[in-house]
UniProtKB/TrEMBL annotation:
Known EC number: 2.6.1.16
Top enzyme class: transferase
CDD domains (UniProt xref): GFAT (cd00714), SIS_GlmS_GlmD_1 (cd05008), SIS_GlmS_GlmD_2 (cd05009)
Listed GO biological process terms: amino sugar biosynthetic process; carbohydrate metabolic process; fructose 6-phosphate metabolic process; protein N-linked glycosylation; UDP-N-acetylglucosamine metabolic process
Cellular component, GO, one term: cytosol
This protein's name: Glutamine--fructose-6-phosphate aminotransferase [isomerizing]
Subunit structure: Homodimer.
Domain Glutamine amidotransferase type-2: 2-217
Residues covered by the SIS domain: 283-422, 455-597
Example GO molecular function: glutamine-fructose-6-phosphate transaminase (isomerizing) activity
Gene source species: Sphingopyxis flava
Lineage: Bacteria, Pseudomonadati, Pseudomonadota, Alphaproteobacteria, Sphingomonadales
Subcellular location: Cytoplasm
Gene3D superfamilies: Glucose-6-phosphate isomerase like protein, domain 1, Glutamine Phosphoribosylpyrophosphate, subunit 1, domain 1
Function summary: Catalyzes the first step in hexosamine metabolism, converting fructose-6P into glucosamine-6P using glutamine as a nitrogen source.
Length: 607
């Protein structure tokens, strides 16, 4: 992961570089640094920890210059210390890197054997030395890059500044994303369009293997064979305003509350409310021929995929495999012709998911992606792009992206069912009617925010918390547990309610709150039986259900959280809200850093 930015400009760049880092802190916040070029000097400032520390450092020790690079780090090789912070520099070259140089060990040994001294434990520093070696030998920056890039294995997005060249920056990408931004007499590099949002909307996305020389006049892009190429300049559409916190205390809180609007926005691309039909984008392959679906994703996106598996199988009667992306390729999956491989990702850049996508593509699968960043690598490599319209999600713990993914996946399930002849027009109308109700139901769920805030202190002291759910609410139990661990650091596990008696029940005592997700409906009685098994052993239950469910089973619980009564189809969207809010309020009660929890990053672009 990590976020990188470079500016070659008309005015001073340090503050603008820091502002760009602020927009990319979601990519990592273990340390940060900038390096400018001024008066034939590389002026480098770095600080461990959050960006605020770098801002303080720059306050006392400014970095003048109209050209510079900057980095926010999620540590892979080497502890999050100042000496491991980027930019890494030699006498001639400073650079920032997102990704991992997998062959850094032999490269480092070679460099050390040639007498070069290292000041960090990072993989990145080898690149600075390799480029520097070439420059010191008299090569131009361009020729130095041409000599070094073929030596690097792994994944990288690089931005490189040269002490003696205050008129250019060089960028390169392989595996990790990098964009070029075009301004008025200024040019930029960034990990994503979001980083450059206040500077420019004119963005070109580099392709795999591309490298670029940027100057104040523009950019010259080359492919991996060093041939000059042009990459389309698009308008990013990401405005700086969409990434402000507004009146909310945290981005996560804002994003939870945006859900009714962004789910409605997303649904409007996938259903025709008047006709009450689903409407998917045009595709140039025959969906009715799909006879198996393989879903691959990570984290919260994986749980959205788990919910979708229920829908695809129930509605379309298509068998579904699902894997976490980091495991997928390593089990050597059997992928038969005629299969649809479906990748779900907020960022569209998660390295494991992207690698799985490429694996499936190479095996001849049709590739569909549900992504929130329509310009991301996954979006650009898909046969069928199904964007979510959640808008930029800044809080590291995913919330609105999840419910928007569910909205798209429900529409896709209905569409597949239609294509397969498993759904009548009346059943389609019914599904669409329920989906249309989702935004209002999300609003009704959000109306319980204060109740949830008021009971958060009951969960905050716990060391362990269990979440139970059945059917499509089982992935929600997993998601609830993930949210709680991510931001409150309380150990939490989600289980299929019926599985609890096969082990986790041994954990039950008065100190372990058990959050039970049980909308009234076909699975309610069975989940409640599992809940009684907990209570019979002295367990303390937090029951999340609708009024009917709470009336039937709420008595004697540690706490109850009421949800609107909704159709089982949209229950996973609606029940996402209380598990998000519970995690949020517990984290606030514990005083943790809600938007930037320790050790995590939002976009995981390393395997
Ligand atoms: C990280 C984030 C999670 C996210 C996961 C997958 O772990 O912290 O919130 O669910 O990556 O990310 P993606 O962008 O592929 O959905």
């Amino acid at each position: 992961m990590c976020g990188i930015i470079g500016i070659i400009g008309k005015d001073q760049v340090a503050d603008r570089l820091v502002d760009g880092l602020k927009r990319m802190e979601y990519r990592g916040y273990d340390s940060a640094g900038v390096c400018t070029v001024e008066g034939g000097q590389l002026i480098r400032r770095r600080a461990e920890g959050k960006l605020g520390n770098l801002v303080k450092e720059l306050g006392g020790n400014p970095a003048p210059g109209t050209l510079g690079i900057a980095h926010t780090r999620w540590a892979t090789h080497g502890a999050p210390t100042t000496s491991n912070a980027h930019p890494h520099a030699t006498g001639e070259v400073a650079l920032v890197h997102n990704g991992i140089i997998e062959n850094f060990k032999p490269l480092r040994e070679g460099l050390q054997a040639r007498g070069r001294r290292f000041e960090s434990e990072t993989d990145t520093e080898v690149v600075a030395h390799l480029v520097s070696e070439q420059v010191e030998a008299g090569l131009s920056p361009q020729d130095a890059i041409k000599a070094v890039l073929p030596q690097l294995r792994g994944a990288f997005a690089l931005a490189i500044a040269f002490r003696q060249h205050p008129d250019l920056l060089i960028g390169a990408r392989l595996g990790s994303p990098l964009v070029v931004g075009y301004g008025e007499g200024e040019t930029y590099l960034g990990s994503d369009a979001l980083a450059l949002a206040p500077l420019t909307q004119k963005i070109a996305y580099l392709e795999e293997g591309d490298w670029v020389i940027i100057s104040r006049e523009g950019a010259q892009i080359f492919d991996s064979e060093n041939n000059p190429v042009t990459r389309e300049i698009t308008t990013s559409g990401v405005s700086a305003a969409t990434i402000e916190k507004g009146n909310y205390r945290h981005y996560m809180q804002k994003e939870i509350f945006e859900q009714p609007v962004v789910v409605a926005q997303t649904l409007s691309s996938y259903i025709r409310p008047l006709e009450q039909t689903v409407a998917l984008p045009q595709m140039d392959f025959d969906l009715s021929a799909i006879d198996r679906i393989t879903i691959v994703a990570c984290g919260t996106s994986y749980y959205a995929g788990m919910v979708a598996k229920y829908w695809f199988e129930t509605f379309a009667r298509i068998p579904v495999d699902i894997d976490v992306a980091s495991e997928f390729r390593y089990r050597d999956p059997v992928l038969q012709p005629g299969g649809l491989a479906l990748f779900i990702s907020q960022s569209g850049e998660t390295a494991d998911t992207l690698a799985a996508l490429r694996h499936c593509k190479a095996q001849g699968q049709t590739i569909a992606v549900v992504v929130n960043v329509p310009t991301s690598s996954m979006a650009r490599e898909a046969d069928l792009l199904l964007p979510t319209h959640a808008g930029p999600e800044i809080g590291v713990a995913s919330t609105k992206a999840f419910t928007c993914q569910l909205a798209v996946l429900a529409a896709l399930a209905a569409h597949l069912a239609l294509c397969k002849g498993k759904l009548s027009a009346e059943e389609e109308r019914e599904i669409v009617r329920h989906l249309i109700e989702a935004p209002a139901a999300l609003n009704a769920a959000l109306a319980h925010d204060e109740d949830i805030s008021a009971m958060a202190h009951l969960v905050a002291p716990a060391r362990d918390v269990l979440y139970l759910g059945r059917g499509p609410d089982y992935p929600l139990a997993l998601e609830g547990a993930l949210k709680l661990k991510e931001i409150s650091y309380i150990h939490a596990e989600g289980y299929a309610s019926g599985e609890m008696k096969h082990g986790p029940i041994a954990l039950i005592d008065e100190a372990v709150p058990v959050v039970v997700l049980a909308p009234s409906g076909p699975l309610f009685e069975k989940t409640v039986s599992n809940m009684q098994e907990v209570r019979a052993r002295g367990g303390k239950v937090v029951l999340i259900s609708d009024a009917e469910g709470l009336a039937e089973a709420g008595e004697g619980c540690l706490a109850t959280i009421e949800m609107p009564k909704v159709h089982p189809l949209i229950a996973p969207l609606v029940y996402a809200v209380p598990v998000q809010l519970l995690a949020y309020h517990v984290a606030v009660a514990k005083g943790t850093d809600v938007d930037q929890p320790r050790n995590l990053a939002k976009s995981v672009t390393v395997e």
